[in-house]
Design a protein that fits this description.
By secondary structure, the protein is of the alpha+beta class. Strands 2-3-1-4-5 form a five-stranded antiparallel β-sheet, with no helix packed on it. Strands 6-7-8-9 form a four-stranded antiparallel β-sheet, with no helix packed on it. A hairpin with a 2-residue loop joins strand 4 and strand 5. It starts with 19 loop residues before the first helix and ends in a 7-residue tail after the last strand. The chain binds zinc ion. Zinc ion binds next to loops.
């Protein structure tokens, strides 16, 4: 062990003196790069933080994740963001999203980032990449499409990622970002 090679710590609050209320216990070990959301991650004990959600999409995200009325959730809507102009943030206590769930949210908001938190620490930071094909998550809007039969699994090709545009594999109907309905 070489002396002086202390583990690297990212002190996220360095630029702004933290209010006394926020400093107890939760600082020092997170690996989140400093950004505009840095102070708010520590508010969650265990669960998932979804950052960089598109503005005013957080309620839709809660719906597609099936987060119920009994869940403990912190919601920030239309916050100032340096990356996006405005963004939403969701913090869901006590729930770690699966990859499939994160991919679902990414379809709603492709630039979203996810942090899994355990004991106030970020154990995984994740940004899903949109797949070239999406199976089963999304409903086709064409009433004549074969996928209206519940035995047929829907399949969409991702035509463009920003803005998101999908095309039904079966009937070729296009779906734009704001039309997406989750099955
Ligand atoms: Zn279709």
């Amino acid at each position: 062990m070489a002396p002086g090679s202390a583990p690297k710590r990212v002190l996220t609050a360095a630029a702004n003196p933290a209010p006394a209320l926020q400093s107890a216990g939760a600082s020092g070990a997170t690996e989140v790069k400093p950004d505009s959301a840095k102070m708010q991650v520590s508010a969650l004990r265990s669960g998932t933080v979804i950052d960089h959600l598109g503005p005013a999409t957080s309620f839709k995200a809660l719906k597609i994740l099936g987060v119920g009325a009994d869940a403990t959730v912190l919601i920030g809507v239309n916050l100032d963001s340096s990356k996006l102009r405005k963004k939403d943030i969701l913090k869901i206590e006590g729930r770690e999203l699966t990859d499939a769930e994160m991919n679902k949210v990414a379809l709603l908001s492709p630039q979203a980032t996810f942090s899994l938190i355990r004991d106030f620490k970020v154990v995984r930071k994740f940004r899903p990449t949109l797949p070239d094909q999406v199976e089963g998550l999304i409903r086709c809007l064409n009433p004549a499409c074969i996928t209206q039969d519940p035995r047929v699994t829907g399949r969409f090709h991702v035509v463009t990622k920003a803005p998101l545009k999908l095309r039904c594999h079966f009937c070729e109907r296009s779906l734009h970002e704001n039309e997406i309905e989750f099955a």
